[in-house]
Input
Amino acid sequence: MPNPLEIHNLTKSYNGVQVLSGVSLSVRPGQITALLGPSGCGKTTTLRLIAGFEWPDSGTIAINGRIVASDTVRVPAEERRVGMVFQEYALFPHLSVADNITFGLSGKAKEKAERAKAMLALVGLSGIGNRMPYELSGGQQQRVALARALAPQPDILLLDEPFSNLDAALRGQVRSEVRAILKQTNITCVFVTHDQEEALSLADEVAIMLQGRVAQVAPPQKLYHRPATAEIAAFVGEANFVPGEAEGSHVVCAFGSLPLDETRHGPVQVLIRPEAIRLDADGSGGTVMWREFYGHDQRIGLLLDSGISLVARADAAQVVDVGQTVGVAINGPVRAFPA
Output
């Protein structure tokens, strides 16, 4: 059985500027995949090509084994069975919530009303079908947009920066709700984001896009702990790098000999995540330069006696003061990249 989505070697240019350079991606049934990358990396262009709003210069897109875009095939967007939730939601302001959800659906009025009712129940908004979009909060509008995209029972759901219009306090809550809805419907989903936390918490797999290419595809935990390159490590989460000399299963650096997560030899850059740094208030070797308290944890800026600067994350209960001398140790193993 073919995967719901197969992309092979997509290229795309605008006015002579290369935006995509050989993008390939496979998405399994029921999988939530994030396209994560900085602005201008090509992630939104990739989403638009999947939707059928743009055409690739070369390469192929297949949905459930059917080629929808290639050098010789151009299946229009309305014939691809793809749902789309836009960044600004794109609800029709003159239509009720129920009419927004059923817009474009065929069938009798009673059937469409039942479908709207079922979709509102699915997204946890039962009873608001007669309200207008302007009467809803941002989180409610987002869920109505999701209900509208799911109403035609698409094969694939696409979301473009789906939570960027929500305030920080609401974003995490709605993100959890949307993931639960997607898993309940078992729909295959691809969403675009530049927010690392959003990608890691919502997706089953994350495709890192850099400079028009897919640099790595992996589950969130693997991507964070075993990034393929130093560039990916620096983009996904916070990263410290210290020079070292790899000697097989260990690396010698400013912290002595540390175990490696895979064998290396020669000069390397050692990746040290902030949460892997362990502080000892009674030790020595580093000085606290600054401290940011967040309630659930804290970020601490360190200057080692060797002159290396690091950022650590510590439990909120740990008491350290700016100017204090502390011992610094690393919880291994660590990852290293060729220098």
Remarks:
- The chain is about 25% helix and 40% strand.
- The two ends are 43 Å apart (CA to CA).
